[in-house]
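Section 4.2 – Deliverable D4.2 (structural model, holo form)

The reporting period included a commitment to supply a predicted holo structure for the target in complex with zinc ion. Inputs used:
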Amino acid sequence: MAQPCTVAGCAEPRFSREYCRTHAYRAQRYGDPLAASPTTRARLTQERLRQALAGMRRGLSTDAAAAEAGFTGRALRKHLTALGLSAADLKPPKPEPTEPDRRERVRRLARIERERTWAAEREQGTRTYNVHTGEKRRDLHILLTPVAVAEVHAEAERRQCSLSALVNAALAEAGIISDV
Ligand SMILES: [Zn+2]
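Output (structure tokens):
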């Protein structure tokens, strides 16, 4: 039965005088049975670097982010320089200072809610009209000054037609629509 590898915690059978196949390879290649391969080390460095950058984006100082990721501050600054980054590039964005105050937000929300209610009521009215007349019409809502509303009503009365028919006629006259 082969003796186990002499590296603490390694139960693999010995391949060389002291080590298993993996540890013998590392000892020969890097002069240290515990040395990881350059690609493994590079990958670990990349992972720690990502962790450090994430820490800085959360608002940590360079030194604090370095410590968290297991770098010295100096090593992290060297990595940043190599990446063409400065600590300022990684500062978290400041929150928008132009937040509307509470009252203004409440007013805006109330206005949106009112507009929704009106739209729902108009839609209901249009549906009722379509069902009763058997026509397919869609509602177009326009806002007018009180004087203009009075004039439109007066004109509809003169022509003995509905407001819709009046607007349809005006749009047809202007060549905007052909289907009245
Ligand atoms: Zn081993």
